[in-house]
Specification:
The protein is about 35% helix and about 20% strand. By secondary structure, it is an alpha+beta fold. It binds adenosine-5'-triphosphate and magnesium ion.
């Protein structure tokens, strides 16, 4: 290999793979549009303060995963580790609260986190997500969950599992936090070192620790459900009722807390079984406090983000192939110098008629050209050789079933749709 490779934790998405991404992106765009969500594109980097808001509780992302650097103007810049804070910033900055509420947005693109690379965990990865801003209605929480599930189902994923919890609000969460700290106070020595520091900074995150020692200490831990205020409880019950009314099953997981600190009320994760530790394909929830934390007006909002690499891994682990279309309608194979000129004309004519067409450029043998065309997943090969040219004809070969027929060049130039759309073998 040559000297320079892609940085650790990043991946090239090559042709052959990229079609899967496009297929997935098309589904995301179509389903989101079907629910009335519109695309938003925010910068790949932001002022560091947007993610490190100071008043928030400590999170994995802020503590150790951000790609932060000082630019030439001395500003602290961070490559976006997630999409929600940038969307909220844009909503406030462009006063989208002035338009019809709620504002339904979706995004899709790369995120950056300095993590230890492993299966399903990268330093540059891709997410799509939706954010519904300006509504506190539990119907909205349900809707975002449905958007996620619809996309996953359209992709062909099966047996996905929804986990739900409520994180409470500034009224009730502090009481839970205290209850939790009381419970953990005598058990600190049994916790892992990370959780010992979480105890002061963000004790709720201890619930989520995967270490055996911590799991053991948590066996009798108080549950947030018992601490929810009437409003949070009512909200959470409605979300569950709406999901149930649609026949959607879910399980309540009182230990589910999201890594990001801005969540309030509903939180959820979508789990794809059989994927080891990196089995969460999407996570989301309500974040009624985030806009204010970003220095804006109070804006109730809810959304989710899904990891696209993990979705592809989940599809693979379920043995699901995405239905990838043959990419090119035609490959123009040419043998001999005068055939090259005619081939060029034919290729241009095909493209003008809306066909995707490539042509031979290397002067290879016909056999080699057919092999190359097969690798390109071409539907038809148009063969122009000296002999056919002498008869003002070409051969059309259907690469899906191997059928061939000779056709007049004139027809190929003037009305190719009749030749390429019909089934050639019959
Ligand atoms: P995890 O617990 O796996 O670290 P998270 O809670 O940090 O996930 P979120 O911030 O909620 O994840 O991001 C939403 C989704 O993005 C995750 O469910 C996952 O599918 C995906 N994701 C998060 N981090 C990575 C990463 N480093 N590489 C690939 N996908 C990721
Ligand atoms: Mg993480």
């Amino acid at each position: 290999m040559s000297g320079i490779s892609a940085p650790r934790g990043t991946k090239d998405i090559l042709p052959g793979e990229v079609e899967k991404w496009q297929y997935m992106e098309d589904i995301v765009r179509r389903v989101c549009a079907g629910y009335g969500y519109r695309e938003i594109r925010t910068p790949l980097f932001e002022h560091t303060e947007l993610f490190q808001r100071g008043i928030g509780e400590a999170t994995d992302i802020v503590e150790k995963e951000m790609y932060t650097f000082t630019d030439r103007g001395g500003r602290s810049i961070t490559l976006r580790p997630e999409g929600t804070a940038p969307v909220v910033r844009a909503y406030l900055e462009h006063k989208l609260y002035g338009s019809a509420q709620p504002v339904r947005l979706f995004y899709l693109g790369p995120m950056f986190r300095y993590e230890r690379p492993q299966a399903g965990r990268y330093r540059q990865f891709h997410q799509f997500g939706v954010e519904a801003l300006g509504s506190q209605d539990p119907l909205m929480d349900t809707e975002t969950i449905l958007v996620a599930l619809t996309i996953f189902e359209e992709l062909g994923l099966e047996n996905l599992h929804i986990e739900l919890n409520s994180m409470g609000c500034p009224q009730c969460r502090p009481r839970y936090r205290e209850g939790l700290k009381d419970y953990l106070k005598g058990r600190l020595d049994g916790l892992c070192s990370v959780c010992q520091t979480r105890y002061e900074l963000n004790p709720v995150r201890i619930l989520d620790c995967k270490e055996d020692a911590c799991r053991k200490e948590l066996e009798g831990v108080p549950e947030i459900g018992d601490y929810l205020c009437p409003e949070c409880r009512g909200h959470f019950e409605l979300v569950q009722r709406y999901l149930t009314s649609l026949g959607r099953s879910f399980s309540l997981n009182p230990r589910l807390v999201r890594g990001l600190d801005y969540y309030t009320k509903t939180v959820f994760e979508v789990i794809a079984p059989g994927m080891g530790a990196q089995n969460a394909v999407a996570g989301g929830g309500r974040y009624d406090g985030l806009a204010e934390e970003c220095g804006g007006r109070e804006t109730p909002a809810v959304g989710f983000a899904a990891g696209m690499e993990r979705l592809l891994l989940a599809l693979e682990s379920q043995g699901k192939e995405l239905p990838l279309p043959r990419e090119l309608d035609a490959f123009v194979a040419v043998v001999g110098d005068s055939a090259r000129t005619m081939g060029l004309k034919v290729a241009v004519a095909l493209r003008q008629r809306g066909f995707k067409a490539a042509m031979e450029t290397e002067g290879r043998s016909l056999r080699a050209q057919l092999k190359a065309a097969d690798r390109l997943l071409v539907k038809h090969v148009v063969i122009i050789g000296e002999e056919e040219l002498g008869r003002s004809a070409a051969i059309i070969r259907n690469m899906e079933d191997g059928g061939q027929q000779e056709v007049p060049l004139e027809q190929l130039l003037e009305a190719p749709e009749r030749l390429l759309l019909q089934k050639i073998s019959d």
